Amino acid sequence: MAALFMVRAQVLDPKIKNDFDRWYQDDHLPAALKAFNARRAWRGWSDLDAGVHYAWYEFADLASARAIVGSEGLKRLVMEFEQAWGDKVARSRDFVDLAQAMEA
Predict the structure, then answer these.
(1) pTM, entire model
(2) Residue 56 near residue 43 (C-beta atoms within 8 A)
(3) In angstroms, how far apart are the furthest CA atoms of the chain?
(4) CA torsion sign, 75 to 76 to 77 to 82?
(5) 94: buried, middle or exposed (CB in 10 Å: 19+, 13-18, 0-12)?
């Protein structure tokens, strides 16, 4: 079953949210999808906390997802993220090993 790499970003200054959104849409998500060689990527904003942004990257399995740890692609993306946003955006990362999927 598939696995996900998830990034949760907390935009700490509401004044930069639009710039962050545009940068993630135009630059970061496409670059990460390519660098990670993920199946697909998507992102969205929390409905409960307007400053929380999530991005998900789908992989064939957990081993494929975890293979990005320490990769040159992830290192470059982290560096670019930090250069662009510094301490204005806090983030955390997680891997999710999908256990079940259903469709209606």
Answers:
(1) 0.94
(2) yes
(3) 43
(4) positive
(5) exposed
Contact call for residues 43 and 53 (beta carbons, < 8 A): yes
Q: What would the DSSP string read from start to end of 66-90? A: HTTTT-HHHHHHHHHHHHHHGGGEE
98: DSSP letter: -
Q: CATH number of the domain at 3-97, please?
A: 3.30.70.100
Place of tokens 């970003």: 9
Q: Long-range pairs for 44-47 at CB < 8 Å and ≥24 separation?
A: 45/21
Per-residue pLDDT reduced to its tens digit, 41-87: 999 999 999 999 999 999 999 999 999 999 999 999 999 999 999 99
| Cα angle for residues 14, 29, 4 (degrees, 5° grid) | 105
Position 89 scores a pLDDT of 98
b/e 12-35 (16+ beta carbons within 10 angstroms → b): eeeebeeebeebbeeebbeebbeb
Amino acid at 24: Y
